Amino acid sequence: MVSRLVLGCGTVGQTLVEAIADGEHDMRVVDDAENRVDALREEGVSATLGDPTDPETVRESVEGAEVVVVADRDSETNRRAAELAAELFPEAYVIGYLGEECDADRREAIATLADHVIDPTDALVEQVLAVTLGDYAIRTANLRRAIRRIDGTLAVFMHDNPDPDAIASAVALCRVAEEIGVEAVPCYFGDISHQENRAFVNLLELDLRNFASTEDVDFEEFGGIALVDHSRPGVNDQLPADTVVDIVVDHHPPKEPPEAEFVDLRSDVGATSTLLAEHIQRLGIDLTESVATGLLYGIRVDTKDFSREVSTADFEAASYLLPHADVGTLDRVESPSVSPDTLATIARAIRNRRVEGTVLATCVGSLADRDALAQAADHLLNMESITTTLVYGFREGTVYVSARARGTDIDLGETMRSAFDQIGSAGGHADMAGAQIPLGLLGEVEDEEEASLTSVVSDVITDRFFETIQSTPGNDGEYAHGGDASFEATVVDPED
Question: Residue 244, Cβ neighbours under 10 Å: how many?
Fold first, then answer.
């Protein structure tokens, strides 16, 4: 007995066979076209040459079936095959394709015999509507128009010290621009210091352009500017705040509405890579292996392997990307060596922790690698009874803060903004957020021991964070701030 039987195999039938021939179930195809049967056999599919409406042919081919798919191009053949399926396999689930030029009588007959009917006209209409009138299809068309208007090279800027989601999104947007006929280059300020991120870039051989500072950017070189995984120039990047931006694609809730000719900002998805995957799919662009692998990794990282702020769109994008991605490369990316500096940072975070209830805050002091903060915050979240972590350290005159939450009503993004926006800039999602705070006091104490500076920073950051949480149960309503800060109130941007 086979689990699936296909009677007749026109173009639709071949598509169905490719979709269900996954190697996990027995399948048999009966078709009267020798070339199709030969092609199926070459693909490893069991196929019988014969009339799919002839009882003897079908009986000789199979003893029974759980699912019968009637899928010939001819509607009369499908009607007769559906009758045969109902007669020979009365307990089977029958899927009936109406075929071409199906009149009302045949349509009624197949609909009566089949458990599920595939109407080619309805299927075509649904496909066209999904592509041309879907919720975000018009947005994709506007993205294409915005790119076409770029006169020259499009500079696609990630946020500073970019993570996989930002990197993959920038590379993908450049791929879209290339397909449209516009040259584009992925750009960033800062460093790619996280071990996995460096492995990600190196293994996929991504060609990124790194600028040391704004002075290194020749804006006359570019015909347009795009921002991915952040939405405002000068906020989490080193672009001048008055930079004219043409395109923004991001998934983070903005503090202020972005200003650009084209904006695709959806905070209901888990990754910017999801948005780029959707645009590429709707535009019908052929995915290169490196772009598909990058976008899939970007989604996995930002959703923490589909366990954090994940949406249906993220799963759908991953499903689209997976067949084109190099999963072996992802395995290599996710198993890099960990630097001694990162381990030392995590150790200091554990040693210096302060816990109040289920909330943990800790200062790691001077930072060699700011990406280690996020790793420490994730690591400490695994401690028993801890639902919220805040890890911070300082480097080159700035305090960097990384926060994580799990299994709590606290909205970290709002909490961080409430606690630190007056002395710096902060934000993020409900369970993953960050902040950057300029250390205006640094010039006065830089010659003193690091322990002294750590003490000053801890007094402000930890107290301010705990007071904000304590004064706003559930993070509803207005937030209260406690204490005076010894920092300059300069606007910078939160960690991604």
Answer: 12
Neighbours of 286 (CB within 10 A): 9
Q: Where are the alpha helices (DSSP H) in 181-326?
A: 195-203, 272-283, 289-302, 312-321
User: Kind of pairing, strands 209-211 and 359-366?
Assistant: unpaired
Instruction: Return mean pLDDT, the chain.
Output: 84
Distance CA 459, CA 228 (A): 35
Q: Do residues 249 and 242 lie in contact, with contact meaning Cβ atoms separated by under 8 Å?
A: no
| CA–CA dist 268, 274 (Å, integer) | 11
Token pair of 385 as six digits: 């009874």
Residue 84 identity (one-letter amino acid): L
Chain CA centroid to CA 20, Å: 27
Tokens of 316: 């759908």
In terms of pTM, does the model score above 0.70?
no
pLDDT at 335: 65
In whole angstroms, give the CA distance from residue 65 to residue 436. 63
Sequence-distant (≥ 6) Cβ neighbours of residue 133 within 8 angstroms: none
Token digits of residue 486: 């010894």
Instruction: State the Cα–Cα distance between residues 24 and 481, nearest whole angstrom.
Output: 59
Q: Considering only CA atoms, give the Rg of the chain.
A: 29
Q: In whole angstroms, what is the distance from residue 489 CA to residue 421 CA?
A: 8
Contact 391, 380 (CB under 8 A): yes
Instruction: Name the nearest CA neighbour of 485 among 451, 453, 457.
Output: 457
Would you call 98 helix, strand, or coil by DSSP? coil
pLDDT digit string, tens, across residues 447-480: 445 667 777 788 889 989 999 988 765 444 333 3
Q: Is 488 exposed, middle or buried (0-12, 13-18, 19+ CB in 10 A)?
A: middle
Tokens of residue 405, six digits: 């939450």
**How many residues are there in the chain?**
496
Residue 117 is classified by DSSP as E
Q: Which amino acid, 355?
A: V
- The DSSP line for 125-182 is HHHHHHHHHSTTHHHHHHHHHHHHT--SEEEEEPPSS--HHHHHHHHHHHHHHHHHT-
Q: At what angle do helices 272-283 and 137-148 cross, to 10 degrees?
A: 80
